[in-house]
Design goal:
The longest helix is centred in the middle third of the chain and has 19 residues. The protein has 2 helices and 6 strands, in the order ββαββββα. With 151 residues, it is α+β, with helices and mostly antiparallel strands. The protein has a single domain, classed as Thiol Ester Dehydrase, Chain A (Roll), CATH 3.10.129.10. It has a 6-stranded antiparallel beta sheet with strand order 1-2-4-5-6-3, with helices on one face.
Length: 151
């Protein structure tokens, strides 16, 4: 199973913060274990959602020419728990960027309430598997987010 955690991007433009959305129905299989009878959206998934939004934004800036990998989580703070069903909005902004990587600041909103903030480091690397196959920005990932149609 591939964990493309974002449903779609509402804003994705070079030089601007990205904004994406995710809807959790509560019927996703991981809610059986987290937590039975009172499911909660795991904070680790919210971190991954901000990393995916930031990774796509950073990837867009480099033309998806290199792989983008989450290297370090400097901060992840969540103010409250979130129970499904829910619609989360994720924002990611490039705070500092270079060819080798970028610091990203992410936010997670429930309705209009800020419920989480992250700061993490993404790094770039050449494609693995002798450059024959992208692991991160593979065709399925690019199709899922409609990134093949971007100018």
């Amino acid at each position: 199973m591939r964990w493309d955690l974002l449903d779609k991007f509402e804003v994705l433009k070079k030089g601007e913060p990205a904004r994406a959305v995710k809807f959790f129905s509560g019927k996703e299989d991981f809610f059986r274990d987290h937590f039975p009878g009172r499911p909660l959206v795991p904070e680790s998934l919210m971190i991954e959602m901000t990393a995916q939004a930031g990774g796509v934004l950073f990837g867009l800036g480099i033309g998806f020419k290199k792989e983008v990998i989450l290297a370090k989580i400097e901060q992840a703070r969540f103010e409250r728990t979130v129970a499904p069903p829910c619609r989360l909005v994720v924002e990611a902004a490039l705070a500092e960027e270079r060819e080798e990587g970028a610091w990203v600041e992410g936010k997670v909103f429930l309705n209009k309430d800020l419920i989480g903030q992250t700061r993490f480091l993404l790094v770039t690397m050449d494609a693995v598997d002798d450059g024959k196959k992208n692991v991160v920005f593979n065709d399925d990932f690019m199709k899922h987010f409609g990134l093949l149609r971007l100018p």
